[in-house]
Amino acid sequence: MALVVLALLCVQACSSQPSNEKPDSRSSAPSAPYLGNRGYALPDSPFTRKGTVVTATCSMGARYAGVSVQAWDPATWQPRAERQFPIPSDAVFTNYPGAKAVNSPLVDLCGVSPDAPSPYPVDSLEYTAPRVRALFDLAFTRMAVVLRDPGSKTTSHVGFVMSGANQDDVVRLSGAAGDDEQNAVMSPDGRSVWFTYTAGGKQRIGSRSVEGNHRLSDEGPATGHKLPLTVSGEPARAVQGNMVNIAPNGRRLTANAPKVFGNVFDTWNSSGPLTGASARGATLLSGCVGVVGWIGDDRVLCRTSSGSFRAMNARTGRAAGAPIGVVGRHDGPVAEGMVVSADGKKFIVSVHPPNGRQREVAGFEDPDFRVVPTTPGGSAISIPNDRLSTDTVFLDWL
Questions:
Q1: DSSP class of residue 177?
Q2: CB distance 176 to 21 below 8 Å
Q3: 83-119: b or e for each residue (b if 16 or more CB lie within 10 Å)?
Q4: What is the tens place of the pLDDT at every residue in 120-175?
Q5: Which residues sit opposite 163 in a β-bridge?
Q6: Bridge partner residues of 369 (DSSP)
Q7: Beta bridge partner(s), residue 133
Q8: Nearest Cα to 105, choosing from 140, 77, 67, 133?
Q9: Is 19 exposed, middle or buried (0-12, 13-18, 19+ CB in 10 A)?
Q10: What's the pTM value of the predicted model, to 2 decimals?
Q11: Cis ω on the peptide bond leading into residue 235 (within 30° of 0)?
């Protein structure tokens, strides 16, 4: 298959790490209540202001590949600002025969096709959008990447690129022979990259600071590489699971993992995978096949098994309102949700053919994105803009 290779400060590559590097298991910060991301002071920009929608789109060319992150005015659907993140030539944005298969949300955004499926078992947009959002810090200034070692089919390292950097200006945070680092995501403040790695034949969660000597800090256990990471909270903590959405008050989260009963969990003060033990007391959202996001501290918006959307009580797991229809059950297309507005009153869906990822029909059909009220009976409004494509993923509605 033909390979496609994926911007304010220019950064230089960092030196590689010694091969005998040992994990640093010391905690980087004292334990504190895990209350979401409200403790972070963000720089003022179009990407951090209230009332902004943020999207990411992967663009490809013969000699260039990159991610365009755009801030939109949801009243006019005109762009307020744009940032470009180049993808270095050795960064993993697709999996192909003959190369080390790597799990990275960047593959979800850029490299999924009929011949190269998502590295994760489920790729509906309720799963994909939170994974892709985790690639960036809260202010959308840095993007985490996994880098393949050109001289090895078994080695991968983590790094990041700055918005506005040149094509191969990537900061490499590791480089020891035999590294097996995957699932790279940014911390909320952009000061560290978190990932899953292999140590002593077992998978762990680790982090490396973007400054200093980038020493490996061990953050806790992992359950293989197949589940992605989401990092949030102050101090930062990682949850390994799918569909991770933090409640407005930061006290609970939604998540999904194989063989784990439940959808809503209390947050905890350590990093780790979503397991049966960590999921004690979880609430199961009845009939929910995809969590779109929170519409209040006690309600979650779900895509249901019937194809409609519905508010669910996050404490009881029962429906908290009538179904919200976007497409008819027998219309042909399906609707998948990506993001809920910060006030909980609207959400954005993509309507597309069933049984296939959007980018499989890229170039043949215009995207069909709609803004839908989170209460039944309202009218969906199409999002008209020729700068949106079927590859666009909606990440935030601030």
A1: T
A2: yes
A3: bebbbbbbbbbbbeeeebebbbbbbbbbbbeeeeebb
A4: 999 999 999 999 999 999 999 999 999 999 888 899 999 999 999 988 899 999 98
A5: none
A6: 350
A7: none
A8: 133
A9: exposed
A10: 0.90
A11: yes
